[in-house]
Amino acid sequence: MDLNLIIFGILFLVLGYLIGVKKQTWLLSGFNEKRVKNKKKLSYLVGGTLTFLSIVLIIGGIIGRLTPEYFMIFAVAVMFGLVLYVNIKLVE
Prior knowledge:
It is a single chain. The chain is mainly α. It has one domain (3-89). Helix content is 71%, strand content 0%. Keywords: Membrane, Transmembrane, Transmembrane helix.
Protein backbone atom coordinates (compact mmCIF):
# COMPACT_ATOMS: atom_id res chain seq x y z
CA MET A 1 0.00 0.00 0.00
CA ASP A 2 1.46 3.34 -1.08
CA LEU A 3 -0.03 6.26 0.81
CA ASN A 4 1.45 8.90 -1.53
CA LEU A 5 -0.40 7.52 -4.56
CA ILE A 6 -3.63 7.39 -2.59
CA ILE A 7 -3.22 11.03 -1.50
CA PHE A 8 -2.52 12.16 -5.08
CA GLY A 9 -5.51 10.11 -6.23
CA ILE A 10 -7.80 11.81 -3.72
CA LEU A 11 -6.44 15.22 -4.73
CA PHE A 12 -7.09 14.45 -8.41
CA LEU A 13 -10.57 13.19 -7.53
CA VAL A 14 -11.44 16.44 -5.74
CA LEU A 15 -10.05 18.53 -8.63
CA GLY A 16 -11.91 16.37 -11.15
CA TYR A 17 -15.15 16.94 -9.27
CA LEU A 18 -14.63 20.69 -8.95
CA ILE A 19 -13.68 21.15 -12.60
CA GLY A 20 -15.96 18.56 -14.21
CA VAL A 21 -19.14 18.86 -12.15
CA LYS A 22 -18.97 22.30 -10.56
CA LYS A 23 -17.37 23.93 -13.67
CA GLN A 24 -14.68 25.67 -11.61
CA THR A 25 -12.46 26.41 -14.62
CA TRP A 26 -10.53 29.05 -12.69
CA LEU A 27 -8.58 26.11 -11.22
CA LEU A 28 -7.03 25.48 -14.64
CA SER A 29 -3.65 27.13 -15.02
CA GLY A 30 -3.52 29.60 -17.90
CA PHE A 31 -7.24 29.32 -18.63
CA ASN A 32 -8.43 32.18 -20.84
CA GLU A 33 -12.20 32.10 -21.27
CA LYS A 34 -12.07 34.27 -24.39
CA ARG A 35 -9.94 31.75 -26.33
CA VAL A 36 -11.92 28.58 -25.50
CA LYS A 37 -14.55 27.54 -28.04
CA ASN A 38 -16.61 25.33 -25.71
CA LYS A 39 -16.14 25.91 -21.99
CA LYS A 40 -18.57 23.14 -21.01
CA LYS A 41 -16.74 20.52 -23.11
CA LEU A 42 -13.38 21.66 -21.72
CA SER A 43 -14.52 21.30 -18.09
CA TYR A 44 -16.14 17.92 -18.79
CA LEU A 45 -13.02 16.62 -20.56
CA VAL A 46 -10.54 17.83 -17.94
CA GLY A 47 -12.75 16.73 -15.04
CA GLY A 48 -13.26 13.29 -16.57
CA THR A 49 -9.55 12.84 -17.21
CA LEU A 50 -8.67 13.83 -13.65
CA THR A 51 -11.31 11.45 -12.29
CA PHE A 52 -9.95 8.60 -14.44
CA LEU A 53 -6.39 9.31 -13.24
CA SER A 54 -7.56 9.48 -9.63
CA ILE A 55 -9.13 6.02 -9.89
CA VAL A 56 -5.95 4.60 -11.44
CA LEU A 57 -3.76 6.18 -8.74
CA ILE A 58 -5.96 5.08 -5.85
CA ILE A 59 -6.19 1.50 -7.11
CA GLY A 60 -2.45 1.48 -7.81
CA GLY A 61 -1.77 2.79 -4.33
CA ILE A 62 -3.93 0.14 -2.71
CA ILE A 63 -2.58 -2.77 -4.75
CA GLY A 64 1.03 -1.57 -4.57
CA ARG A 65 2.42 -3.91 -7.22
CA LEU A 66 4.30 -1.29 -9.26
CA THR A 67 6.45 1.54 -8.00
CA PRO A 68 4.85 5.00 -7.84
CA GLU A 69 7.13 6.24 -10.63
CA TYR A 70 5.25 4.16 -13.20
CA PHE A 71 1.91 5.61 -12.16
CA MET A 72 3.21 9.17 -12.15
CA ILE A 73 4.79 8.74 -15.60
CA PHE A 74 1.44 7.43 -16.84
CA ALA A 75 -0.39 10.39 -15.25
CA VAL A 76 2.01 12.92 -16.78
CA ALA A 77 1.69 11.26 -20.21
CA VAL A 78 -2.13 11.36 -20.05
CA MET A 79 -2.10 15.00 -18.95
CA PHE A 80 0.34 15.90 -21.74
CA GLY A 81 -1.98 14.25 -24.26
CA LEU A 82 -4.91 16.18 -22.78
CA VAL A 83 -3.05 19.48 -23.10
CA LEU A 84 -2.24 18.74 -26.75
CA TYR A 85 -5.84 17.77 -27.54
CA VAL A 86 -7.29 20.84 -25.83
CA ASN A 87 -4.88 23.21 -27.55
CA ILE A 88 -5.57 21.69 -30.97
CA LYS A 89 -9.35 21.20 -30.75
CA LEU A 90 -10.77 23.60 -28.17
CA VAL A 91 -8.60 26.73 -28.25
CA GLU A 92 -8.77 29.38 -30.95
